[in-house]
Amino acid sequence: MKIRVLGIRGLPGTYSGLETIMGELAPRWVEAGHEVTVYCRKAVFKERPSEWKGIKLVYLPSIEHKVFSTLSHSFLATLHASFSPSDAILVWNAGNGPFGWFFRIAGKSAVINVDGMEWLRPKWKGIGAVYFKWAAKMATSAFPIVITDAEEMKRLYLEELGAETTYIAYGANIEPSEHPEILENYGLESRNYYLIASRLVPDNNADMILEAFVNSNSQKKLAIAGGADYKGNKLENQFLDKLKSIANENVMFLGHIDNSEHIKELHHHCFAYIHGHQFGGINPSILKALGFSNCILALNTPFNHEVLEGGTYGVLFDKTSESLKNEIEVLEQNPEKVDDFRQRAPEQIRKRFNWDHIAEQYIDVFEKLQNKK
Fold first, then answer.
1. CB of 269 within 8 A of CB of 141?
2. What is the DSSP letter of 172?
3. Of 260, 296, 354, 373, which Cα lies nearest the Cα of 16?
């Protein structure tokens, strides 16, 4: 099949979970004999090769702004894909839902992965939240198949939007530590720090995590790998300033790290990974932590609960700094629990979040699209 993908920044990607996902799926589709084209935001890439791992790359412009970057690029990619040969088009992000009508008019087979409930995110207020909910509703009517990434998300789309969706999970790889010396670059010692690895936006709750850590009796470090998405974004920079005002001498801001090998080693050698993501379905970061044999402390949301199976594969905490503080202190008093979670983590990837199986599920959906023609 000829498969086209739009709605992400592009490949190869290091910033967002969506690029990570397509970096796993697209090469597998190529290996299976399919022709894959991915649309890339020209402004994001200094180097612009025409191919990566056998995937064709098409670079189109965008308005680089918090609100317009994704939509402007997706609009141009939609026009391009509407007049280009394809058997299946995969669109990411519910915000791109209205573009499904272009594909219908052009007679193209397209499917969308809505990637969560964007209208609930604190960064989208007022007209932004209204748009995203409307766009999600458009997605359910414009696209013949809508993909959700969690059983809970499938339920919510049915309950809130009256739409049946197809559940396909995200995945992760099981990878061993190979270069522990990388920790020296960051002044960290194995098992002597907690890790946050995420964009520093309010809905990932880094402020609550910092408060819990600072108020705990832990003498370990808290390493924060991440930054604000847009340097010129006032709200995100204010949030970063807030984090720095909460931090004590044991908190280390590592900034955005775009080296996947470094991220892997930071995961492998931390005492525990703290996951505060609240919206957006099952986040790839928590799956990555499982694949890196991590002990996970996760905010108790339906999505994190689903991944960790109610605490079987990690610790769930309530949305209060006191709850997380208590869990931190319990783990430090019982390090054998940390070892137990670490040994058990890869089992969940093998069982539920295997990339090879997920890649095949998407191909099944694309074939189903063909049969609907």
1. no
2. B
3. 260
